[in-house]
Amino acid sequence: MGHDARSTDARPQTRRAVFISSPDLWRVGFGGKHPLKPERLARTVALLTAYGALDAPNVEVVTPRMASNEELALFHTPEYVDAVRRLSTGDDRIPAHRYGFGPGDNPVFRGMYESAGLKAGGGIQAAERLLAGECEVAFNFSGGLHHAAPARASGFCIFNDVAIAIAYLVAQGQRVVYVDIDAHHGDGVQNAFYESDQVLTISLHQDGRTLFPGTGFVEETGRGKGAGFSVNIPLRPNTDDATYLWAFEALVPPLIQRFAPDILVTQLGVDTHYQDPLTTMALTTEGHEALFRVFSSLATMPWLACGGGGYNLDVVPRSWALAFAVMSGQTLPDALPQAYRDAYGGEWLHDHRSPHLDAATKARARWQAEEVVAAVRSAMGL
Ligand SMILES: [Zn+2]
Fold first, then answer.
1. Are 96 and 141 in contact (CB under 8 A)?
2. What residues pair up with 157 in beta bridges, in sequence order?
3. What does each of the 382 residues of the chain score in pLDDT, given as a tens digit?
4. Strand order from edge to edge, sheet including 176-180
5. At 171, which CATH number?
6. How far away, in angstroms, is 328 Cα from ligand 1 center?
7. Range of the domain at 109
8. Residue 159: left if φ>0, alpha if ψ -120 to 50, beta else—which one?
9. CA-CA distance, 235 to 365, in Å (whole number)?
10. Ligand 1 centroid from CA 219, angstroms
């Protein structure tokens, strides 16, 4: 035939990629000085648009729809869903505090039911598209709200789009591996599947002794049928790219390969960045991109990616643009597009600086990572 297979292999992989987006996702938010600013989402789309990354022939932008009551009930109690809906309209007869709402992390705001419901609906749509074989990767970048509990808002999260999407996938007979790289422990998702052997949850995060929600220790490995299907990799504050990637590579690929999932679900919170205002991890955009590339190489099965945390407005759009570039097989120039620079500033897509860490700090982080990797290997029989 004269066809050279090697030249085919050398081409960058272009998978069909769905990006779930609509301005309705960022019209409202917690407001005031709350760190989960809707502008994180608007800027991410502005950057991808300025690069032309959403116009690529293998990319489809899908408008999210509201999750139905039945879909929300895959994880949440009907009583909670009804309370969110009524609080969202300004109904002050509902005891907000009973459902985790109030001043601080989770203030009530008008339109929160629609805002959270769209993010959850987007997760279901991403799962539907992947299961139908209409795409190989899907990014529900406004989701990743991994702290919400069945009857309670928690840690800026109202509806747990991740737990809902995974429950939907499990109901379709899928074996799901969930990997959470947010700086905070993915407690809501872990708890949802703590007694299930159909979902392997893996969370890497800043040590719970130093950060909300205060859980995610190596000893939390699942219960009953789910024993051995929850993995936690707590890392010391100031863990940098090299140590984080070392721990990730030591555990995540072998755990995924052994579990042999039908689908990969990832929570791509980027609050591990060294300039994030809420955490004290020390990753850079290079570290984030390296993690996205490992996921990409592991994703020989469908890949549903969700967003998550990330509170530095100059970092989040760049890291998530890198994520979608990796997912959709695009290479973005390092110079930020002029239109984006004019609107939001900045110069480069990647960090051109790195955190200043002394040798002792790096060594302490590495030492804890080595201990944790050894403990997880032992607990999981790796
Ligand atoms: Zn987080």
1. no
2. 154
3. 444 444 444 444 689 999 999 999 999 999 999 999 999 999 999 999 999 999 999 999 999 999 999 999 999 999 999 999 999 999 999 999 999 999 999 999 999 999 999 999 999 999 999 999 999 999 999 999 999 999 999 999 999 999 999 999 999 999 999 999 999 999 999 999 999 999 999 999 999 999 999 999 999 999 999 999 999 999 999 999 999 999 999 999 999 999 999 999 999 999 999 999 999 999 999 999 999 999 999 999 999 999 999 999 999 999 999 999 999 999 999 999 999 999 999 999 999 999 999 999 999 999 999 999 999 999 999 9
4. 59-62, 17-20, 137-140, 303-306, 263-267, 176-180, 199-206, 230-235
5. 3.40.800.20
6. 24
7. 13-330+360-380
8. beta
9. 7
10. 21
**Separation of 381 CA from ligand 1 center, angstroms?**
29
| Residue 132 located in a structural domain | yes
pLDDT value of residue 1:
41
Round to whole Å and give the CA distance between 229 and 221: 6
How many angstroms does the Cα of residue 183 sit away from the middle of ligand 1? 5
How long a stretch of residues is the chain? 382
Our count of domains for the chain comes to: 1
- Kindly list the distances between the CA atom of residue 21 and the CA atoms of 25, 114, 153, 294, 305, in Å, as whole numbers in the listed order: 7, 14, 23, 25, 13
Which sequence positions are flagged as catalytic?
A: 147
Distance 278 CA to ligand 1 centre (A): 8
- Dig out the tokens for 173 from the structure: 């007979």
At 287 the three-state DSSP class reads: helix
Q: How close is the Cα of 282 to the center of ligand 1, in Å?
A: 14
Which two tokens mark 289? 């991109």
Q: How far is the CA of 316 from the centre of ligand 1 (A)?
A: 12
Ligand 1 ion: nearby residues, β-carbon < 5 Å: 182-184, 269, 271, 309
Interior/surface letters 183-202, b for 16+ CB within 10 angstroms, e for the rest: bbbbbbbbbbbbebebbbbb
Domain contains 31: yes
| 121: in domain | yes
Whether 343 is in a domain gets the answer: no
97 alpha carbon, distance to own chain's centre:
27
Round to whole Å and give the CA distance between 44 and 42.
Answer: 6
